[in-house]
Amino acid sequence: MHRPGGLVWLALAAGFLLALLAGGCSGSDDKPRAAAPGATADAATLAENFSRLKSFRAVIGQGESGPGLLQGTVEYEAPDKVHVTAGTGSVSQEVLCIGDRFYARPQGSGWQTVPSSTASCRANLGPADPDAIAASLKAVAGVGPLKKGAEDSVGGKKCTVYTQTLPSGVEFGTCVAGGLPLRIVNKAAQGSVTLTFSDFDKPLDIKPPI
Questions:
Q1: Closest-CA residue to 176 (of 34, 71, 7, 76)
Q2: The sheet that has 171-177: what strands, in order across it?
Q3: Contact, 104 vs 210, CB < 8 A?
Q4: Which of 22, 24, 23, 42 is closest to 33 using CA atoms?
Q5: Domains in the chain: ranges and CATH
Q6: For the chain, how long is the longest CA-to-CA vector?
Q7: pTM, whole model, 2 decimals?
Q8: pLDDT at position 67, please?
C-alpha cells in the first residue's frame, strides 16, 4: 500500500515550520501550567504547557484560503489519539492515529487500516503531529526570547502577540493567552501557514473508525 496522502503531507511540510526540527517532546502530565493571560513570552514554557494538554482542536491554513492551498483540522486526545484531515480542494484525506494503530481514508475511499510494519502513523502527520508542534516551540526557544507585540484576539479570546525571526529567515509568530498559543503563524518566502487552536482540555471522543 502506498503511503497515504504523501503529496498533501509534502506540501504541508514545505510550507510549515521551515528549518525547525520536528523531534519528539514530553507527553501530558498533571503539573499545573501558567494561567495568567499573556503571562509568558518564553517559547520553552509554551512548549511545556502545550505538551501537557489533555486535548485540543486546531485548524490549519496555508496562506489565504483558495484553490490549491492546504486547509485542514487536527484533533488530539492524550495520550496517543490524533485525527487529522487535510486537503487542497482537489486532493484530501484523513489520517487517524490511535496508539500504534494507523487508519487512513483517501479522498473517495473508505477507511483503511495501514499495517504498522508499513508506516508509522504519527510520522505521517508531519508537522501536524502534536509532538512536532511542541518540539517546534522548543526549537524557537533555542533562538532567543520572543519579542512582545500588540494585543489581539483569537476566537473571541484576547491574547498577546509574540514574534521571532529564525536563522532560516522564517518569521515565527504566536498569540498567547493563559500560557498557551492560541495561534501560531510561520511566514517564509514560500508562503505562510497558520494553526489556530481551540477547545484546550475539552472532552473529545476519538474512536477507531473500523
A1: 34
A2: 112-114, 101-106, 92-98, 81-87, 71-77, 55-62, 191-198, 180-188, 171-177, 157-165, 147-154
A3: no
A4: 42
A5: 6-17+34-198 (2.50.20.20)
A6: 49
A7: 0.80
A8: 56
